[in-house]
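Researcher: Next sequence.
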Amino acid sequence: MAPIAVEPSPAPPTVVGPTTKKATRPTNQIPQYLIEEARVQKEPFNPQRHLNFQPPSKIHTMKEIGLEGHGISLNAVSEPFPLFTEDAIKQIRAEIFSEPVLQKCQYTSSFTKNMIRGMGHELAPFTYNAWYSAEVLARISEVAGVELVPSMDYEVANINISFNDSSEELAQGADSPNGDDLPAVAWHYDSFPFVCVTMLSDCTEMIGGETALRKPNGEVMKVRGPSMGTAVVMQGRYIEHQAIKALGGRERISMVTAFRPKSPFIKDESVLTGVRPISNISETYTQYTIYRLEVLEERLRARLKMERRREVAKHDFDLASAKSFLMEQKQFLESMLTELVEI
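Model: Next structure:
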């Protein structure tokens, strides 16, 4: 049986969620031109036609940013790399700005004014088939340095939407070179181990749009913003970061998909703090509970198999090992109790 995170590791950072306490619909309307321009002829996802992966020019390590020993991988964050073709982006945008999605899936929070979340396979089959395809998962895992799967359905393709509706913002941005200025998304840690941020906008006329990382010593490091169809993979549960507001373009639409380790034997320090206030709570709690119980089931089956083999081999019972295993599962269940709270 594979080991279950037996080496001591630093405690994960505390996730601070939005001040919004319950799922809230946005009051500012998405511009009509975004909806009208997104209309295309629908087609199914085909990796040969829609995947355009090229390895990133550089992958920054956790050691480089002062976080050696944290997280579930040595890799911290990648430089932007091509992931989807233009045709794929058009299909995804068509689903995002479809009438059923806009009616059901719009959210707002103190972090981001306009979001689309929880589209599901029924409303966004192209998007979901893309993120669950073996080809895409293999490439994301390759960049992350650990085999990953989407955290749960609800966390596939969280869409952050910002748009410029006046020239005033451009003037304000002219003298704002620092990482703390003009955030599109506030400083935060993610609720899940890894994220893949994919750009869905044409960035030709944009200024900014980088991802800023804050190191433990307070230094801010910027990763170049992705262009349309390119992505950045980041171990966001362990790295404090924010998206810098893009200036000069009409819009900045990014797609964030959250990932967790595929192996049940790798630690999973996912929480719901950042997503609970911007989600359908019944769907989120159901999906969270199912995936966590599946992880626990796999761990228990593997331990049972090991105990049966030990008995056949006539080896003595290892009390310390058994108690350590049970304590880890107790902590795993206690973390679930912490996350499943009344709203």
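Model: The radius of gyration is 21 Å. Confidence is low (pLDDT under 50) at residues 1-6, 167-180.
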